[in-house]
Amino acid sequence: MSVEIHIVEGAVGVETTAAAPGAGAVLVFDGVVRGVEEGRDLAALEYEVYEPMASQQLGALAADVVRSHGLMGLRCIHSRGRVGVGKCSLRVTICSAHRAEALAGMGEFIDRLKRDVPIWKKPIWV
Amino acid sequence: MSVEIHIVEGAVGVETTAAAPGAGAVLVFDGVVRGVEEGRDLAALEYEVYEPMASQQLGALAADVVRSHGLMGLRCIHSRGRVGVGKCSLRVTICSAHRAEALAGMGEFIDRLKRDVPIWKKPIWV
Amino acid sequence: MLLFGPAAIAVGRERVMLRVDAEATCEQVLIAMGACEPKLGPFVASGRLAVNHAFAPSDQVVREGDEVALIAMVSGG
Amino acid sequence: MLLFGPAAIAVGRERVMLRVDAEATCEQVLIAMGACEPKLGPFVASGRLAVNHAFAPSDQVVREGDEVALIAMVSGG
Fold it and tell me: Residues B126, B41: contact at Cβ < 8 Å?
């Protein structure tokens, strides 16, 4: 089992994922900035990240989800600062033996991230 | 909403996914050939695909899942023929407004694919 | 009648010939198939017939020239 | 005490000074914060304190030199 956490400046870039040896499922979630929030046109989101707490919380959460769902690995990349519309602000990659635990673990990880990790977004209107 | 179905010879290759305009979530599932089946070492899986029925079934299934979960798009690429260990035999990409429907739609699409689509795999042992 | 995957392996070939009544339904075809090729028993029990590339209801009549396939124990993904 | 996101916007700054008893617990700090800065009321009600970068139980005593932060209405992802 492996856990990786990265906080990056600006949008999360494109990358290719190699499956962990023995993995039967690789699940990748990209959270993308949408162009409209509360009915208004958005230019970007500005992310504020309280470090080192955010990385520590993400690491503990990832380890917990990996253990409880029996995953082979979980990697999380989250943006700090400005991310434009259509760009990726969060990527979560899960490797596991089968699809069911990858899907369940993905849902739980993102739900808890949105509840327990000290990151805030601020809309930048057009 | 858009649906794309592709049957490809051999392993599914690496590609980059552009989010549909307005999508807030892009979820990509890769099914990867595992090295051990029933306790024996595997060299590859050989996929047999009954066409055009398989593509037709996949298209109808994708359209149904897109409609029932309110997705923005679903693309499915499935291998035919030989796919080596560690290689991808199935990739499903879902774009949606939010993560919940992407995760639910992914689970349902793959479950039904494994039940209703005329594709068979045969182990090629080492 | 077309066979695939483990069903084809079980009988050692990818198609079987079957003689049925002119107005035979899919259900009758399945029963005839199980009787004619006992090795297909488990596949007939768990599978479905496709006629012209679509799953067919059990009361659908099979006509001359139809492409009939036994879809059983699929394992895609 | 550090503030972030909408809590910092509500009071117009990213840190507030708070005078508390020497052996004050996190719960007492939260109550004092709500009293001292009424605009923080909804954030105090829904948030939690982090002490030295970890969520702290309400009975944890805050010591001089601790980094104390109000973590409320997070919106990552």
Answer: yes
